[in-house]
UniProtKB/TrEMBL annotation:
<dbReference type="GO" id="GO:0005549">
    <property type="term" value="F:odorant binding"/>
</dbReference>
<keyword id="KW-0472">Membrane</keyword>
<dbReference type="GO" id="GO:0004984">
    <property type="term" value="F:olfactory receptor activity"/>
</dbReference>
<feature type="transmembrane region" description="Helical">
    <location>
        <begin position="20"/>
        <end position="42"/>
    </location>
</feature>
<feature type="transmembrane region" description="Helical">
    <location>
        <begin position="132"/>
        <end position="155"/>
    </location>
</feature>
<dbReference type="InterPro" id="IPR052921">
    <property type="entry name" value="GPCR1_Superfamily_Member"/>
</dbReference>
<dbReference type="InterPro" id="IPR017452">
    <property type="entry name" value="GPCR_Rhodpsn_7TM"/>
</dbReference>
<feature type="transmembrane region" description="Helical">
    <location>
        <begin position="83"/>
        <end position="111"/>
    </location>
</feature>
<dbReference type="GO" id="GO:0004930">
    <property type="term" value="F:G protein-coupled receptor activity"/>
</dbReference>
<dbReference type="GO" id="GO:0016020">
    <property type="term" value="C:membrane"/>
</dbReference>
<keyword id="KW-0812">Transmembrane</keyword>
<dbReference type="Pfam" id="PF00001">
    <property type="entry name" value="7tm_1"/>
</dbReference>
<dbReference type="InterPro" id="IPR000276">
    <property type="entry name" value="GPCR_Rhodpsn"/>
</dbReference>
<feature type="transmembrane region" description="Helical">
    <location>
        <begin position="186"/>
        <end position="204"/>
    </location>
</feature>
<feature type="transmembrane region" description="Helical">
    <location>
        <begin position="54"/>
        <end position="77"/>
    </location>
</feature>
<feature type="domain" description="G-protein coupled receptors family 1 profile">
    <location>
        <begin position="33"/>
        <end position="282"/>
    </location>
</feature>
<feature type="transmembrane region" description="Helical">
    <location>
        <begin position="264"/>
        <end position="284"/>
    </location>
</feature>
Length: 304
């Protein structure tokens, strides 16, 4: 019946809801703002030769890609579009990896602020452009860990014929047995713990320097401290996303309608909101970036 199709949909059977329309508006706004910031990044050489801005650029790209992919999956799920399992594996591979890239990058950005404030004499060498490029590779390698675990446990249990079957694509599709869900939860909690400890350590060390600093150094340190706090809040929201599958599984066993409401709430709060904070932290709070961004806007051009 499916023929050679890899995706089968029933668009006419599922009308658009207010929730889906709301998500589309939020995602479009988010992507437009991110594209503007990405253009701004390439407007000045100091941005793509500085570790903090390069890492910010990585978060912009990963967040934009993740929001686009998850939004597509949301639409496919809403309209009950099923796809062959092998195709879903490819899609979910990138979704899982890039859902981890942002919190790992935020943790790295926090460490960069720690080096800049607490080890200022070594900052230029440690956070050079070359080292930052290597760091991006390491970030993607570390972010692949949970995905490799999920996919490996699935490959070890699924039959070959299962890959040609059609199903609604989601990460939960790979949880054929309860122990696989426990393994995924354990890996996510491990990442949660390591990144949380890193944020707390960096905050504590910067706080010590802030108390001892004076004059311009104190002002710069206080600004770095506020940045770390914002990173911590943003990272906390992203890290809660690592716990949400475990909570969703428990909610699903209670009530399916409650599960759908809870999943929508999770998607907005732990996927969209944290990724809207990056433009605020660096796009608006950073003076250099904001000045270049302001000059790109038509209103500022006309006023000049």
């Amino acid at each position: 019946m499916a023929g050679n199709n890899t995706v089968i949909c029933a668009f006419l059977e599922r009308p658009l809801t207010d929730r889906i329309i709301t998500v589309q508006i939020l995602v479009i706004i988010f992507l437009c703002v991110n594209m503007l910031l990405i253009v701004t990044f390439f407007k000045k050489e100091c941005f793509y030769t500085s570790a903090r801005y390069i890492l910010f650029f990585v978060t912009l790209l990963s967040d934009s890609f993740l929001l686009l992919m998850t939004d597509i999956l949301l639409i496919l799920t809403t309209f009950r579009c099923s796809m062959q399992v092998w195709l879903c594996i490819i899609v979910c591979f990138f979704v899982i990896v890039y859902s981890i890239v942002t919190p790992v990058t935020l943790t790295t950005m926090t460490l960069e602020r720690y080096v800049a404030i607490c080890m200022s004499l070594r900052h230029g060498q440690t956070c050079s452009t070359r080292n930052t490029k290597y760091c991006i590779l390491i970030i993607h390698g570390l972010s692949s860990g949970p995905c490799i675990v999920v996919i490996s446990t699935f490959f070890s249990t699924a039959s070959i014929s299962f890959y040609k079957q059609y199903a609604i694509c989601s990460v939960e599709m790979f949880m054929l047995y309860r122990w696989q869900d426990h393994v995924r939860s354990a890996v996510n909690q491990f990442y949660f713990f390591i990144m949380g400890i890193t944020i707390i350590f960096s905050y504590a060390q910067i706080m010590k320097v802030a108390k001892a600093a004076s004059g311009e150094n104190k002002k710069s340190t206080q600004k770095g401290l506020r940045t770390v706090i914002l990173h911590g809040f943003q990272l906390l929201l992203c890290l809660f996303q690592l716990w949400s599958p475990f909570i969703e599984t428990a909610v699903f066993q209670i009530d399916s309608n409650l599960f759908r409401n809870f999943r929508y709430f999770n998607y907005v709060l732990f996927n969209i909101v944290p990724r809207c904070l990056s433009p605020l932290i660096y796009g608006l709070r950073d003076e250099k970036f904001f000045l270049v961004l302001k000059n790109l806007l038509p209103a500022s051009s006309n006023s000049e």
